[in-house]
Design brief:
The structure is a single chain. This protein is an alpha/beta fold. It has two domains: 208 residues, Periplasmic binding protein-like II (D-Maltodextrin-Binding Protein, domain 2); 149 residues, D-Maltodextrin-Binding Protein, domain 2. The protein is 28% helix and 12% strand. The protein contains 13 helices and nine strands. α5 crosses α6, α5 packs across α13 and α6 runs parallel beside α13. The chain is globular. The two termini are 33 Å apart. The N terminus is likely disordered.
């Protein structure tokens, strides 16, 4: 993985930002000069660039393309008002309690690109006397296809909420033995009985983030809100949306006051597409996932953005530019996109005890802080507060709005798995807009 020196005495092996106006160290860049982050890879296809990343991380290749495995039965669609507690199959039971960690083991981790501080993984392996291998993927479809191939035996996997039903239905995910994961007590209470995995039978939380609007305060005189791109006609050529079909269409829905970001209403989706298309002549809109660099360096003045990206904005500021010029907005009432990624244990893994211990290790507050210093995406732990992140000099106080609060999670809207037919409409609508750029 590419590591960046932290900005507090250089003690963090990765992540963080230099002081205001400081020079950023050379990190080794990804395609198009961008760092290889979990989010900016959503828009990139597998290929030679990905192979280079895997080589750097000790991975084993990009895997096959294709789609996610299909279920043999009708999958439930978890919703906050329709929570799901997944069954535990007789032939896929949790491991027994009080087992010793596997000896002479190599923990096989399957994760998004650059989405974990490798220093934390190394410390885990020192503690439990094991080796590790990190294999990476750039889209969840790619990851699911590789898992479905049966050609790999990963231990720990970082899924999104929308695929856990498939993983459980196909018995690829191992149910958890909670006795190995006491650090679940460090999480927000919401995650001890989440709507998408009642009783946390199969998953524990990893990162959490919001989607909002970022802007250059010294360049733009607009009130922050969902309609910022449509109000930015005088900033033509300086406006960008995230290159993500769910996020892009959701922004257009929110602009009209629609907070059902899992809508199957074709008329609402079609109108969202028209609103997006209106941005082409209005502001010469771009789509990219470079919010973390484009706003700090001033190439973009208004950017649809992820909180975890803007949290690292100070790192990318030109020398002499103060962090005060960067703004991130998410509504105070929390009525906006909020999401979290997960950690799980795979049933085909050879090291189930170490896997459980690894999940527990990542839920330790100290380890979570060290991890945040690299990825910029916080974990939903009660002790990880705005004041802690600021006091640790991991987050400038000017960007406190990037912190996800428990109230954001409870009031926010998650972009969840859609019925197949509705998802197709969302994709087609976005593609129709994107091809016009």
């Amino acid at each position: 993985m590419h590591h960046r020196e932290g900005w507090k005495d250089g003690r963090r092996g990765a992540g963080g930002a230099p002081p205001e106006g400081g020079d950023a160290p050379d990190t080794g860049r990804g395609p198009l000069g961008s760092p290889l982050t979990r989010r900016n890879f959503l828009a990139l296809g597998a290929g030679a660039a990905l192979g280079g990343v895997l080589s750097a991380c000790g991975g084993s290749g990009s895997g096959s393309g294709g789609t996610s495995p299909t279920s043999s039965s009708a999958l439930k669609l978890p919703r906050p008002n329709h929570p799901v507690t997944w069954p535990i199959a007789a032939d896929n039971s949790p491991i027994k309690s009080n087992l010793e960690p596997e000896k002479n083991a190599t923990l096989q981790i399957y994760n998004w690109v650059a989405y974990i501080n490798e220093a934390v993984v190394k410390n885990f392996c020192k503690k439990y006397d094991c080796n590790y291998s990190i294999t990476t993927f750039n889209t969840m479809s790619e990851a699911m296809a590789k898992l479905a191939s049966g050609e790999v035996n990963f231990d720990v996997f970082f899924p999104t909420i929308d695929v856990i039903g498939q993983l459980i239905d196909t018995k690829m995910m191992r149910p958890l033995n909670h006795s190995y994961i006491p650090n679940i007590a460090n999480t927000w209470p919401d995650y001890r009985n989440p709507f998408y995995d009642g009783g946390w039978r199969y998953t524990v939380p990893y990162s959490i983030y919001t989607t909002g609007m970022a802007w250059r305060k010294d360049k733009v005189s607009l009130a922050p809100g969902w309609d910022m791109p449509w109000q930015a006609a005088k900033y033509k050529g300086k406006v960008a949306l995230l290159d993500d079909y769910r996020e892009g269409i959701s922004l257009a829905l929110l602009k009209r006051g629609i907070t059902d970001l899992n809508t199957t209403n074709s008329a609402q989706i079609a109108q969202a597409g028209k609103d997006l298309e209106a941005l082409i002549p209005l502001v010469d809109v771009r789509i990219d996932n470079n919010d973390y660099t484009e706003i700090p360096n001033g190439n973009t003045w208004v950017h649809h953005a992820w909180s975890g990206d803007i949290a690292t904005a100070a790192y990318y500021l030109p020398k002499g530019t103060k962090i005060d010029v960067v703004g991130y907005w998410f509504p105070e009432d929390g009525k906006g996109p909020v999401a979290n990624d997960l950690m799980s244990v795979l049933s085909t893994g050879q090291n189930p005890v170490l896997s459980h211990l690894f999940l527990n290790y990542m839920l330790d507050v100290h380890n979570a802080i060290e991890n945040y210093s690299y990825v910029g995406y916080m974990q939903p732990l009660t002790a990880v507060t705005p004041s802690l992140l600021i006091s640790e000099k991991l987050l400038p106080p000017q960007l406190i709005s990037t912190v996800v609060r428990p109230s954001d999670f409870r009031a926010g809207v998650e972009e969840l798995e859609l019925p197949v037919s509705a998802n197709l409409v969302w994709e087609q609508t976005w593609n129709s807009f994107a091809k016009g750029l």
